[in-house]
Amino acid sequence: MVRRPLLSPFAETDETSTNISAGRIGRTVLINERSREDYFRPSAALFRSFCEDEIIERYHLGSVVEQATVTSLSYGPLHVEGQAKVDGFWIESKTADGTIEYRGAKTVVIAVGPTSSPNMPKVIDEAQVVEEGKEGELEGEGWCHSAAFARKGFRFLPKELRERVRVGIRTTVVVIGGGSVSFLPIRGRLLTFEERRLTAAQIADLAIRQGVTRVILICRGQLKGQPSSSLRKGATHLLPSVRHFDFGLEWVTKYSNREKMRFWQEDARLARLAMVQAARGGGSVNPTYQRLLKKHVKEEKLELKACTSVTAASYDRERKKWTLRLATLTPPVAKDAQLAEERGPIVEELEEVDYVVCSTGSAMSFANLPFLEPLLKSHPIEMVAAFPQLTQDLQWNAELPLFVVGAYAMLEVSRASDYCEYRC
């Protein structure tokens, strides 16, 4: 059962990989450099064709896939008409038109991504823009979270602000968040419902194309890359690291077993979690949007602020304007780390900001998935940070026929588990 139509996590265009860091252990390269060009984001058409031809038609799944939202999952005695009571899963779901449906199942596979709750910046809460009782909301006066783009009927920018853009009044939009590489780049056309899962770079580009006068992209982390000659004169910020996927190719290429064996031989789940976090490697952007960022910066349509945090925010409801305080980390004065003088952050204030987009992702938390509440009460499971501690077969436990795949199986599979990878 799926909550939304099947989406492609890949790009609209096929492009060869550029500037992807090779994975190494000591001096040993874990990928075949001659094969690097074989690893890039396939087109959305290829992904759709694979789903339809190789999966749906081959296994006759067309009549068994239903679109609904699972609201409750529990396990216990089930009464099947004409049969004795058996233990099984009781599944409650809700369709798009509000119809409540119930199903029973002997075995369940959970394959959900990190979409449980938006990861809201603290400054938004402190600005008291989130209305009381609506802490889970994805948009409010003067702001939205990037997850709101997945809502049916969502329009980017409020009506009043869109009108100001249309008549040419100066407007400022700030996008808070790093890059990502797994979602669809949208260029030259309206967004469809299936494609409204956007990254910070994509949202910044969308704002520019809609005519916003000033767009500022704020990235908190130490983004990797080389200074671009296309940056505005005097700019010291670095462009994000460029790669098609948010992990190194050493996890998926011909020699990936070396990295995976190192991962699987580590029994401590906290150590595995540290390896997963290290493989994530911070902010990144795909080659398509790397070029767009350079182009927008060169044309002075985009201000890119790396190594920058929003330390305070206030919103004037009468004037409908934000004031943001930024702190940008600066590198040491000397190249020699031992002789370098530590310098404090550069503090500045952004005033007259019309709209803020929080492209800060979702907070991964398996225990906080709403539909799992009944099951967690009856069959608790040990958690390691946001992840459940599964068996090697990705099972809840040896007695319960419940399996978990995808992002939440990362501690048993590998860093690439959210890319449909499996463990043999």
Overview of the molecule:
The protein is an alpha/beta fold. Helices cover 18% and strands 21% of the residues. It is built from eight helices and 20 strands. Strands 7-8-17-9-10-13 form a six-stranded mixed sheet. Helix 4 packs across helix 7. The radius of gyration is 23 Å and the shape is globular. The two termini are 24 Å apart. 32% of the residues are buried. Residues 5-29, 179-197 and 223-240 have low confidence and may be disordered.
Present the secondary structure layout.
Blueprint: E1 24-25, E2 28-29, H1 44-57, E3 69-78, E4 86-94, E5 100-105, E6 108-110, H2 122-126, E7 139-140, E8 143-145, H3 159-167, E9 172-176, H4 200-209, E10 214-218, E11 241-242, H5 256-264, H6 269-280, E12 284-285, H7 287-298, E13 302-305, E14 308-316, E15 321-328, E16 346-353, E17 355-358, H8 373-378, E18 383-384, E19 387-388, E20 402-404
Parallel strand pairs: 6-20, 8-17, 9-10, 9-17, 10-13, 11-12
Antiparallel strand pairs: 1-2, 3-4, 4-5, 7-8, 14-15, 15-16, 18-19
Helix pairs in contact: 4-7
